[in-house]
Structure formats: structure tokens, C-alpha cells
């Protein structure tokens, strides 16, 4: 059996394990994904990064994390 998995890009979030607001930050990032899914889209949508990068950057200003975008 063969399965073709489409290439996609994804956010790789780097957040320190000992950061006191880590759980709060992850919850906010999850809200972004949940809202995107409610629009009927998936994280595999080709424009996922472009559609959500501004929101991720806004969270980055509030919480202490870095991110990269990787193609898988």
C-alpha cells in the first residue's frame, strides 16, 4: 500500500520548559489552530503559515518564544 503525504510547512515553536507562562502560551497557540480549523481549513492548507503568521508574531511579542518555519 502506498500513501502520498503532501509536503507542507509548519511552525516550530521554541519555548523554554521553565518559562512560567508556557502553558498559557501553548493555550493561545492552540486557540489560533482551533479557530483556523473552524473555518474548515487544516494545518496542511498551503497558506496556513501566511494565514496565521501575524497572529503568531503578536503572541511572540507577549510571550518569550522563538519560532522557525520548516518544510516537511
Quickly list its features:
alpha+beta, two-stranded antiparallel ribbon, 72 residues, single chain
Description:
This protein has a two-stranded antiparallel sheet with strand order 1-2. The protein has two helices and two strands; from the N terminus they run βααβ. By secondary structure, the chain is an alpha+beta fold. Helix content is 44%, strand content 19%.
Distance between the termini: 21 Å
Q: How many beta-strand runs?
A: 2
| Spatial order of strands in the largest sheet | 1-2
* Shape type: globular
> SSE order in H/E notation?
EHHE
**Fraction of helical residues:** 40-55%
Q: Which structural class do you get from the secondary structure elements?
A: alpha+beta
The whole-angstrom Rg is: 14 Å
Unreliable segments of 5+ consecutive residues? none
Quick synopsis:
With 72 residues, the protein is an alpha+beta fold.
Write the layout of secondary structure elements.
Blueprint: E1 9-15, H1 22-38, H2 48-62, E2 65-71
Antiparallel strand pairs: 1-2
